[in-house]
Every structure is written in structure tokens, then in C-alpha cells.
């Protein structure tokens, strides 16, 4: 939290041009009581007793009045020109309802195991080579919660929709759950309203990642939550969610191995066997993703 506040205090944009609202989402460690907000022109702390990222965002929308709302997490360190660049982008691209960072680079407290590196983008890491915008929320390039800005009319529509459809409140973290995609929902709302969404390389921040979040156990839980949430998001917007692929049985694996070994392409069989034995981590992640889809199916079918 301290580095987040210092990065906001160091913004090049005049402090009188923006307000800072910190949402205390049922914290228990007295961190907020120790904060000093003297360096800000207009800053305050508000309480939100309902636990969860979505509830905290709704509270922020409730108590702010600006035409543009920027969401910043307590492990984000914004580049000093973030706010000024954001205002320029918002003015230039008035058709965009949601705007996000093109560069979200990590600062790891502990270097991840190399085998886990392919899964660290789940921690909301991104280094786009160019800016991109569209009005298609399904194209895979949507602003993420860290450093995400939303126009007031989109935020108000999102607020009303979340309260009208409580099932959408499952699309983010609450307590110990690691669900996600609540930020994707902002892009869906914007596009349904006739706006677009975009990410911009001029918007850059550092994502501070503690050692506990690069452990395999945490990333496996995160992958399960992602699979559940993406399935739920697709379902809520009318897309068909594919059934999870079954886990191959030992009989199937053994049968395939025998056929390969007996074929002329023996080296292909060896390569397949090595992949099965060496990619144990990948297999664990595949398994939890299937578990996430199964949890989604249980949820919608009771």
C-alpha cells in the first residue's frame, strides 16, 4: 500500500485535478489507520463491509463523482505520468468506455520456478508491443483491473447490472476464493452500450507480487478460479461453454504407447512418452482447469 500511495503522490498531474478514495474492504490489520494522506489535495477513506473486489469497486463508484474512475490495487505502482496520459487518451478516444494499461510489469519478491513462468501471466501481467482497441469484448484484449479506467456512464450501468444480477458477483475474488473476470465485465458492459475498450502502451505500472503468489499451490488455485470464471462469463453472455476434456485412462495411455512403439515412427513415440513424463506441471494445471469448468457446471445446474 505504501508504494502505491507514493506512486500516486508522485503523479505529474496537478493534485487538485483528481480525488483519491481508498476503500477499506473489511481490513483487519490496521494498515489504513497508519496511513498518512497529507500529501494529497482531496483524499479520504471509506468503508465497505461486504467482502470482495466487486463490492469494493461498487463502493468506489458510489462515493465518487468524476467522469472518469481509475481503479488501482494496493499492489500497483503507477508510472508518474499515468494520470496525465490517461486524461489525454480519454479525451482523444471518446468512443472508449474502458481504458487499461498496456504495460503491467512484475516485481517479484521471489523469482518464480522456471516451470511456472508460463502461468504467471494469470497474475495480470502484460507487456503489449502496441496499443489496441476494439468494440469486441471477446477478442481477448481487454483492460485488466490494475490501472483500469472506466467512464462514469459505463460504471453506473455496471453498478446497476451487478446488483440486478447477483450471479455476476461471482466474477471476482471474495475472501479466499480466486475467481476473476470482474474486470472483463466492464468491457462487456461498455461494448453493449456502444462504447469500445482499449489498452495503451503509454499507460504503465509495476505489479508488486509477493512470494506466496508465485508458489505452485497458489497458481493452481488461480488457474481453477480462472477456468470457472471464464466459463461463467461466457455463459452469462450467451456463449456455449465446452465440456472439459476427460482425463486419459491408464489403459488408453498404455494402448497408445504400444501402438506408437510398434510403428515405424518409434522416435515419435519416444517424444510423446517424454512429454507425458516431463510435463507433470502442465498436467497439474490442465487438471485444475478441468476442475474449474466442472465447478461452473455444478453451479449452473445445481
What structural keywords apply?
9 strands, 302 residues, alpha+beta, Spore Coat Polysaccharide Biosynthesis Protein SpsA, Chain A, two-stranded parallel sheet, 2 domains
Task: Furnish the topology, listing elements before pairings.
Layout: H1 2-9, E1 20-24, E2 43-47, H2 53-63, E3 68-71, E4 76-78, H3 82-92, E5 96-108, E6 126-127, E7 132-134, E8 148-151, H4 152-164, H5 182-192, E9 196-209, H6 216-236, H7 250-262, H8 266-278, H9 280-301
Parallel strand pairs: 1-2, 5-9
Antiparallel strand pairs: 3-8, 4-9, 5-6, 5-8, 7-9
Description:
The protein is built from 9 helices and 9 strands. It has 2 domains: 2-236, Spore Coat Polysaccharide Biosynthesis Protein SpsA, Chain A (Alpha-Beta Complex); 250-301. Helices cover 41% and strands 18% of the residues. It has 302 residues and is an alpha+beta fold. The strands form 2 sheets. Strands 3, 4, 5, 6, 7, 8 and 9 form a 7-stranded mixed sheet that branches. Helix 4 (152-164) packs across helix 5. The two termini are 40 Å apart. The protein has helices spanning 2-9, 53-63, 82-92, 152-164, 182-192, 216-236, 250-262, 266-278, 280-301; strands spanning 20-24, 43-47, 68-71, 76-78, 96-108, 126-127, 132-134, 148-151, 196-209.
Task: Give a short summary of the structure.
With 302 residues, the protein is of the alpha+beta class.
Task: Tally the beta strands.
Answer: 9
CATH architecture group name of the largest domain: Alpha-Beta Complex
* CATH topology call of the largest domain: Spore Coat Polysaccharide Biosynthesis Protein SpsA, Chain A
Helix content: 40-55%
Broad CATH class of the largest domain: Alpha Beta
Count the DSSP helices: 9
Supply the CATH superfamily name of the largest domain.
Spore Coat Polysaccharide Biosynthesis Protein SpsA, Chain A
Average of pLDDT = 87
Total tally of structural domains: 2
- Give the biggest sheet: 7 strands, mixed
Order of helices and strands: HEEHEEHEEEEHHEHHHH
Shape: globular
Q: How many whole angstroms does the radius of gyration measure? A: 22 Å
